[in-house]
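# step 3/5: fold
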Amino acid sequence: MAGERIIPNGQVGLEPNLTRKKPSTMIMRRLLDQRGPFAIRDMAPGSPTTDAKTIFTQQWFSETTPEDRTIDRMVKTQLRLLFGISSFAELQTIAAEDPEKREERSNDWYRRIGKQYGIEGDVPVIKDQVKHYATTADKVIEYLQQNVLNGQAARTEITNEILHTSNPLELTLMMFDTEHYSKRARFEAKRKLALMVLAATVEQVHQSIDPVEKLKEFDDFLNRRVWRPGKIGEAETVHILSTHDPETFECKTVEFIDQETAREKEKTRNAREELVTTLGRRYFTYHGEAIPVYITTRPKNPETKILKMLRKDTDNPSVAVEDDLGIMGVFDTVAHVDAFQEVLQKGLVEEGFLGGIRDVSDTLEGGEYLNGNAGSSTKTRMRKGLIDFPEHTIEVILHTHQTYLDYYKSHDVGHDEFITKRLYSTGVVDLLFPSNLFDEHGIYAIDHQSAQEKRIEQIRSQLSW
C-alpha cells in the first residue's frame, strides 16, 4: 500500500516504499541515505549555510539520532586527520594544490589503504587493487541498471568523471566540491566511495578463498564420489517440452522430446503456453540404477555480496553471505532428489567429512518457503541446504523439472522477478538511485514504483529464455 508523506514543498504526495523507516544499523546505508542527515545537499560542508560542528546541514540536526551524531563525529574526525585540516573550508586549498603535492598526498592515502586492508606491495600495487575495488563498485551500479532499472539508462547513467576515477582522494574532494560538480556528481562520488569500501571489506574477509579453485575442488569431489565413471564433460543432451498457465506461466506438464521435434516446436510453439528447454545431463548411480541430473555450479561474485550486505543491512560480509559457491541440480522426480542427496552425503563421509547438510528447507512437495528475506516468494518450491567445508560453504539447491521451470518463469516465483522485488522492498534501489520526484533531496528523475512495475511486466511478457 502506498505511503503518504509530506513533500518538502508542503504538498502531499504518494511515495510507495520510500517513507522514512527505522534508521539502518549499517553505517554505509546511513551515509548514503539521501533522506537522512548525511545526504548530499546543494551546499557542501564548510559553506556558510552549514553548521560548523557537523558534516550535515543545520536544518537536519533536530532530526538526527545519537548514533547519527556519533557517526558524524567519527567521519568528521577521520577526514580532518587524513586531510590534515581543522575545517572543511580548507578543502578548497587542498583542491588547488600543485600536482606534485597532490600526488604525494594521494600516495599517502594509498599506503594507508594498503595497511588497512592488508594489501602487500608498493603504491603501484595498492593502486591496482584499489582500482579493482572501483571496478567492483561500478559493476554493482551496472548490475542494477541492466537487470532492475533497464529502460532507465538515460536517467541513471554514471557521470563520466566519476566513472573514470578510482582514486579515493580525488573522489572525496569531488564529493565536497560544489563549485565544479553538480549535486548528482557529488552523490555519485560518495556512492562510489561507499561501494569501494564494501568491496574492500568483502575482499578482506574472503581473500583466502579463490572461488574458481574451490569450484574445481568441488568438481573433483563430484567426479570422485558422485558421478558414474566416464569421460569428464561427457553429458547426455535432452530436450523438454513444458506447458504453462498462460496467465501465471506456472509449469503444468513436462515431457521429453527428440531433437527434431524440439526444432519444430521452437518454430510452432505457443509463446505463452509452451517452452522448449535443452539440458545437458550427467549420471550418478544409486543402488545399481543410473539416475540423470542436470547440474550447474557457480561462484558468488563480489557485487552480488555487496548487494546482499545492503539488503540485509549489515557491514559484515560473513553475516550477509554464508555461502561462497552454489550448486543446483534438476531431476526427473523427487525420489531422484532423495537419491542424489544420499549419494552426496555418502561421498562426503567417504572423503572424511561428517556428511551433514544444515539449514535445510524443503518445499518440493508443498508447503511455504519461509526464508525471512524480503521479496522472496513463499510459493517457491525447492530443496535447499548448506554444506560446510574448512574454508568455505556451498549452497545446494535441488529441483524437479517442474519446480526448476517455475523457479525461473512463474509469476511471483521466477528468479528475475523476486530479485527485482527484494532489491526494491529492502530499499536498495532507492538508496543507490534516490528519486527526486517525491523529495527535493533526491537525485534521479525516476518513479520507482512505476519502474518496478514495468520491469516485472517485462519479465512476465513472454515465456522464453
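# step 4/5: annotate
The beta strands are 4-6, 12-14, 236-244, 251-257, 274-286, 289-299, 325-331, 358-362, 383-388, 393-400.
# step 5/5: archive (pending)
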